């Protein structure tokens, strides 16, 4: 029972994350802006670091607000770059990731808990999520869904809102894996619905097996989930490859 109460909130967090990130990842891969998620996630992470530096780490609403503002500023910049620098957008996105990461490391260099804060932002603490954190994340996702319903053009804005909540829930690494790996594993499929359902299946497998493996081996959950997702991605792509070979395509 103790194990169940420990990993069930983490598993629910994974289900909540994949609900939005699988379709967002499909869009990211389609537009060819692979590092968009890392850059905006890093911007949200920078907001969290700034909140820590201002000693607001106990004020959850202040952290959420600063992280969201930071991510929205980055999303607005990308919106402008897509309009005026579309040929080099991926390069600009990569540069922004390096710049925000460097600013974050600079701020953390004066903190006695720098290593701990950096680990939380990169790897998250999915095994320690609370129902309150899940409810806040759900509110962010609902807000993004409402914006999407009324205006489908502001992709970067919607993306930033979703990423802001997720970074604080599961960390930057798991955000990237949940967005990109399912998209890569299903890129060969022509049906959008098939891409989504297989992507959801892959994430469900990864989060479930990764959390169980972390319990069995007393290992951090995020790396186990990412390794499980990588194994699932390779497995799906291998099945597709051998099917093509058998069919003689």
UniProtKB/TrEMBL annotation:
PANTHER family tied to this protein: ABC-TRANSPORTER METAL-BINDING PROTEIN (PTHR30477), METAL ABC TRANSPORTER PERMEASE (PTHR30477:SF19)
Where in the cell does this protein reside? Cell membrane; Membrane
| Protein name (database record) | High-affinity zinc uptake system membrane protein ZnuB
Q: What protein family does this chain belong to?
A: Belongs to the ABC-3 integral membrane protein family.
**One Gene Ontology biological process:** transmembrane transport
In terms of superkingdom, the source organism counts as Bacteria
Principal location listed in the UniProt entry: membrane
Query: Which GO cellular component terms, listed alphabetically, does the Swiss-Prot or TrEMBL entry include?
Result: ATP-binding cassette (ABC) transporter complex
UniProt keyword terms in alphabetical order: Membrane, Transmembrane, Transmembrane helix, Transport
Q: List residues traversing the bilayer.
A: 6-25, 32-54, 60-81, 93-112, 132-150, 157-185, 224-242
* Membrane topology recorded in Swiss-Prot or TrEMBL: Multi-pass membrane protein
Is the keyword Transport in the record? yes
